[in-house]
Write a structure and sequence with these properties.
With 191 residues, the protein is an alpha+beta fold. 55% of the residues lie in helices and 13% in strands. About 10% of the residues have low confidence.
Length: 191
């Protein structure tokens, strides 16, 4: 096996690559936007969890309204209702009474701190995997895209097939990055 020898890069190619790097979004911006779109930023998750922790102080309120209508002459089925409600028999022979109920209950268990819910145990364990997956995917796509862009600038012999395959792959990588990070990169058209 022979070791690859380094070749000098033409100044115009180096200038074109530097201009390309200056015009395109940075890797950090792409990763940050992708994490935001996926809801995988640990700082956002921890902040939302801290805010939601105090939700246990507020009661859950349920209001209910019933309207009972029963025949006043059917003593066997309505005897227990007649004892609870002082019946006023209306002109049509039916007894109609409204019933209101308002109940409030608290879930105070969410106010108690448990070590399983700490950022290190729960948020760090569950959401770190998602953050790592999104981050590594964006970084891999970004690096391959940048490598192909440099390869396109450095190609000395124009091979139409290789150029087409490279352009198609660049279009695909750009579409993937835009799907993850939003419309951050200028769409490419290989054909």
């Amino acid at each position: 096996l022979r070791a690859a020898t380094a070749q000098a890069v033409a100044p115009r190619v180096l200038a074109a690559f530097r201009q390309l790097v200056a015009e395109e979004p940075r890797l950090e911006e792409a990763v940050d936007r992708a994490l935001g779109r996926a809801g995988a930023r640990i700082s956002d998750v921890v902040a939302a969890r801290q805010r939601s922790r105090w939700a246990g102080v507020l009661p859950t309120v349920e209001a209910t309204y019933y309207r009972y209508a029963f025949d006043a002459f059917d003593v066997r089925t309505t005897a227990f209702i007649s004892r609870l409600v002082d019946a006023d028999i209306q002109a049509d022979g039916r007894n109609v009474r409204p019933f209101w109920a308002v109940m409030g209950y608290w879930d105070l268990g969410s106010l108690i701190h448990r070590s399983a819910e700490s950022p290190i145990n729960r948020v760090g364990g569950v959401n770190a995997k998602l953050e790592w997956r999104v981050r590594s995917t964006v970084i891999n796509l970004y690096q391959e895209r940048r490598r192909l862009q440099l390869e396109r600038l450095l190609s000395r012999t124009p091979d139409p097939r290789a150029a087409l395959l490279r352009a198609l792959r660049l279009e695909e990588l750009t579409a993937h990055l835009n799907a993850l990070a939003g419309p951050l990169f200028e769409p490419m058209d290989a054909l």
